[in-house]
Each structure stands twice: as C-alpha cells, then as structure tokens.
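Hi support team,

I submitted a single chain yesterday and got back a structure, but I'm not sure I'm reading the token output correctly. Could someone confirm the output below corresponds to the sequence I sent? I've pasted both exactly as they appear in my results page.

Thanks,
R.
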Amino acid sequence: MTGAIWNLLLALAWVVLGGDFSGVNLVVGLVFGYITLVLLEPQVEALKGYPARVPRIIRFIGFFIKELVQANLRVAFDILTPPWHMQPGVIAMPLKARTELEITMVANLISLTPGTLSLDVSDDRKVLYIHAMFLDNEEELRRNLEEMERRALELFR
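Hi R., thanks for writing in. Yes, this is the structure output for that exact sequence:
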C-alpha cells in the first residue's frame, strides 16, 4: 500500500511540476513514478513487493474485464432470444480466502459479474453460497469462480 501511495504522489508531482493537468499526463506520471519505485525498491524496505504487484493488478483487471464482457454477452443473448436458456441454482463454493477483506473482495467480484450473485458466507468462513443464472455446467462455473478467487487472492498475498 505504501508503494501505491508513493506512486500516486510522484504522479501528482509530475502533473503539478509539468503544468499539464490532463489524464494522459497523469498516466505518464504514474509510469515514471513506477519506474522510480522499481529502482528504489532494493534500498527502501517499505517498497518490497510493490513492483511485482502492479503487473498482477493489470493482469487481473484485464482478466476481470474479459469475464465481465463474456458474462454480459451470455446474459444479453439469453434475454434477446425467445427460448430462455437459463437454469438458475445455488452452489456452495469452498473458499481459499481467509481474512474478512479477502472474502469480501471475492464475494463482491462474483456479485459484479452478471449472472452470479454472492448470497452468504458460512459461519466458519470456509464456504461461499452463490446463486447462478446458468447452472447448466456446474463444474465449469466452479472452475471459473475458483480462477477468479485465485487471481484476486494473488493481489493480497
């Protein structure tokens, strides 16, 4: 978290010192700030692991956008075609997430994806109950949700 704050502060300094208050200039400042923090990481203990985390975040954003588009297209197709193909149901997914933050993040990412909704977490925090619109292939759905959880946990661990 410290690295992200430093990166943002360096980007803001870049924007202010350059006098160009545009989004593109902010992105350029973020890139230069990231390069600076990569170079400083060996000397600053608080920055350990930050340079490796940024590419994981970018990969996760790309993965989540792909999942989001696919789920939206599937729901839209089902709505627009006369015979509905949905087979709703509830599944119990064992969680690898342990902390409250991790569980909340995974549950929210699942709920943000069209066609799935996080319903509840078991009392022992080991199972997440999920309602799915398309439960025709439970194993594929479970694999997709576990992949999303694995990628989300990479961001925190």
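A quick pointer for reading it: The two ends are 12 Å apart (CA to CA). Let us know if anything else looks off.

Best,
Support desk
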